[in-house]
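Q&A log
Question type: sequence-to-structure
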Amino acid sequence: MSDINDWCFACGSRNPIGLKLTFREENDTYVSNFTAGLEHQSYNGIMHGGLISTLLDEIMARYLYAQGLTAVTAKLEVRYRQPTPIGEKLTITGWIVSKKGKMYELAGKITLPDGTVTAEGKSIVAVKGDE
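Response status: OK
Response body:
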């Protein structure tokens, strides 16, 4: 029997329409790569803003999940700095900014191969239980 998380839209390996993100930890940050296809676009050649927010939400909240915590996003803020192009390898990075009780503040960004930041995110993530 498969893990229910195998069907996550952003990271599930079994979701046929999912993004199938994979992750790695690097120097107190969480990192993933993604190349948007035509099926991910909004206007011609530009990635849909809702999917950009999905990438940022996933990199931030999942960083806590990867540390064994059950975490859900309580607040998400996205700053679109410039259009995110289709067909270019994106690097999505997230990190913990602070912790207060069961609430974590995280930040994230999406960058192009040349280092240009196309979007930034901030989130407040709640950790469930006595973790």
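Response note: The chain has a mean pLDDT of 92.
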